[in-house]
Amino acid sequence: MCTYATVKTSIDGSAKGPGGQWFHVSDGVVYFDHPVHAMAEHTLNIDFSAPGDGPSARVAVELTAASARTLIEAIQAALDSAPEVLTV
C-alpha cells in the first residue's frame, strides 16, 4: 500500500554528494513509502537537495521504521547534550 505521506521543509546545511563533493542543501523531503533500494517493504525516505543545482545535487536515505525512530532519538539526544545557546 502506498501512503503518499510526504512532508517538505526548507533546511540549511551541507551534504556530501556524488564524487565526494560537498554542496549546500536547501530542501528536505521526508516520506514513508516503498523504497528504491533498501530491502524492506516500506521505508522512511529522506531526500536532501539543492534544486537549483540540478538532479545530481541530491542525497537520499532509506531507513526502516525502527531505524528511523532510533535516528530521531539519537538526533534529539545530540541536540539535548549541546549547550542551548548553540542550538537556537
Total beta strands:
4
Order of helices and strands: EEEEH
Question: Measured on Cα atoms, how large is the radius of gyration?
Answer: 15 Å
Structural class category:
alpha+beta
Spatial strand order of the main sheet:
1-2-3-4
> What is the strand content?
35-45%
- Give the termini distance in whole angstroms: 39 Å
Largest sheet: 4 strands, antiparallel
Q: How many alpha or pi helices?
A: 1
Q: What portion of residues is helical?
A: 10-25%
Low-confidence parts lasting 5 or more residues at pLDDT below 50?
none
Q: Categorize the overall geometry.
A: globular
Give the mean pLDDT.
94
Explained architecture:
It is built from one helix and four strands. It has one helix spanning about 65-80; strands at about 5-15, 20-35, 45-50, 60-65. Strands 1-2-3-4 form a four-stranded antiparallel β-sheet. The longest helix has 17 residues, at about 65-80. The radius of gyration is 15 Å and the shape is globular. The chain starts with a strand and ends in a 7-residue tail after the last helix. About 10% of the residues are buried. The model has no long low-confidence stretch (mean pLDDT about 95).
